[in-house]
Design a protein that fits this description.
The chain has about 300 residues and is of the alpha/beta class. The protein folds into two domains: about 5-125 and about 260-285, NAD(P)-binding Rossmann-like Domain (Rossmann fold, 3-Layer(aba) Sandwich); about 130-250 and about 290-305, 2-Layer Sandwich (Dihydrodipicolinate Reductase, domain 2), CATH 3.30.360. It is built from eleven helices and 13 strands. The protein has helices at about 15-25, 40-50, 60-65, 80-90, 105-115, 130-140, 165-170, 170-175, 175-190, 255-275, 285-305, and strands at about 5-10, 30-35, 55, 70-75, 95, 120-125, 150-155, 190-200, 210-215, 220-225, 235-240, 245-250, 285. The strands form two sheets. It has a seven-stranded mixed β-sheet, sandwiched between helices. α4 runs parallel beside α5 (about 105-115), α5 (about 105-115) packs antiparallel against α11 (about 285-305) and α9 (about 175-190) crosses α11 (about 285-305). The longest helix has 22 residues, at about 285-305. It is globular, with a radius of gyration of 19 Å.
Amino acid sequence: MARVEPVRVAVVGAGRMGRAHLRALRRADGVTVAAVVDPVPAVRSELEAAGLHVFAAVDELLAGLPDVDAVVVAAPTDLHLELVTQLAAAHLPILCEKPCGLRPDETVQAVEAAAAAQVVLQVGYWRRFVPALRELRERLMAGAFGTPLLVSCWQWDAAPPSDAFRARSGGILLDMGVHELDQIRWLTGRELADVVVRAPATGDDPDSVAALVELDGGAAGFVSLGRMFPHGDCCWVELMGTEGHARELFMWGDAGERVFEDALVAQAEAFAATVRGAPQRGATGEDAVRAIEAAERATRSLVAAAR
């Protein structure tokens, strides 16, 4: 059997998520880290000392294009559209961190840019690669719970983010909420309709919110988001159906970090397979559009409630 060369992946952005992707790519089968792009000199020096090829800007990366097969975009959210457009024009397959833009129109433009260039655009909704959630989805689709009535999702982080991160993230509903909204849609196979949100405190970016989500077909979703949780960064889901119930604490405490990293590894391997021509298993650009549209409806609800 002929040896399959690994997909050479560059990572744009070496912050918290960029570092997480780098760790995952090193563990992933069929993938190698080709380069890293980051504008911060101290970060570049650190990565160069670790033996990585480092560039200050995407333009520099593209000058060495023959050495790169695909790119992971892990830069701040407000740069997603610009980077996806630039990389798509260079005909590079892209795995973009969620939410792939700050607004639905930006996500749509990113999707259109990738489609026009005929390149893969996968969006980083890594929950789709958590084994416990995949099993729950399979059971739900097989009818094990009867008719779904309520899907409740919680995401609570240990502590609030820095002011610098808040300024570029789009707020709690965009930064955190899109994960839960995509998760509900993916788990149930149903589209997200109306979203009503409330928060215990006012302000542009409260540290906890609750959302009630209407799904087509009559079921409901509930989302709880928070940034001050004593057990660390934790996520869990509960499903109520006419014939069954399940509660899955798929990320809890210190063990949750391994779940997260394992899912990133599986996501990277699926992305590499798609780059080679396999069917796409990760979230598509259309999935990202649906999630951010629901997040925008949620944000409008939160703003209206605060008036």
